Amino acid sequence: MKIVELPKIIPIFPLSNFIMFPGTTVPLNIFEPRYLQMVNDSMKKHRIIGMIQPKKSGILKKPDLYEVGCLGKITSFNETEDGRILIILNGVCRFKIISEIKTNKLYRECDVEYTNYSSDISKKSNEVNFTDLSIIMENMKKFFKKQGYIVNLKDLEKRDLSQTLNDLSMASPFSLEEKQILLESLDINIRKEKLEQILNNYIKDEFENTTLQ
């Protein structure tokens, strides 16, 4: 898929505590009427949904949105007997919201652009250095352990280096604001630097707290 083939107007799924990155794959359980309508409409067109973080401002049913989100393409669709829809989304490309479209639909739609994120699809961004990634993986393991998470990062190590970085960014127990910073990083090397900074801050804080006790 090329940038020019991506839809300019997309359905928006504002999901709290969730940020999707290009190349990642996530399952979603859809049960709200507005999002059931959204998924069914999307299946009739391009199978594209825009995943984005809602802010804590705005009204409850229509919160303000962050400017940058990630397109997800529906690669699996299953309806359950109790009316839910189970889908699998593949992260395609980041987008920036230009404006929200007024419609009579239950869900929200936005006019978006992909200008700054062509590297998500072209794969022409500079590759991450393996040594740098190894250090990040070690620090991530320490961080996960201190946070009480038991994870197996071995599968991630077998993947493309930049893809591993995106998977780590999405799976990490960082704050939503920190994940949004990672999502908005223009290329993979900037994301690597931001991820290192965030990890170092956590490790530094943990060290200082331990030292003070």
Give your account of this protein's structure.
The chain is α+β, with helices and mostly antiparallel strands and 213 residues long. It folds into two domains: 120 residues, Archaeosine Trna-guanine Transglycosylase, Chain: A, domain 4 (Roll), CATH 2.30.130.40; 83 residues, no CATH class. The chain contains seven helices and eight strands. The strands form two sheets. Strands 1-3-6-7-8 form a five-stranded mixed beta barrel. A hairpin with a 2-residue loop joins strand 4 and strand 5.
Quick structural gist:
The protein is built from seven helices and eight strands.
Features:
single chain, 213 residues, Archaeosine Trna-guanine Transglycosylase, Chain: A, domain 4, 2 domains, five-stranded mixed β-barrel, two-stranded antiparallel sheet, 7 helices
Strand % is 25-35%
Gap between N and C termini, in Å? Answer: 54 Å
| Average pLDDT rating | 84
Uncertain residue ranges: none
Largest sheet: 5 strands, mixed, barrel
- Under the CATH scheme, which architecture of the largest domain would be assigned? Roll
Q: Give me the strand/helix succession.
A: EEHEEEEEEHHHHHH
Number of structural units classed as domains: 2
CATH superfamily of the largest domain: LON domain-like
Radius of gyration: 18 Å
- Order of strands, main sheet, comes to 1-3-6-7-8
Structural class: alpha+beta
Strands, count: 8
Count every helix, treating DSSP H or I runs of 4 or more residues as helices: 7
At the first level of CATH, the class of the largest domain is: Mainly Beta
Helix percentage = 25-40%
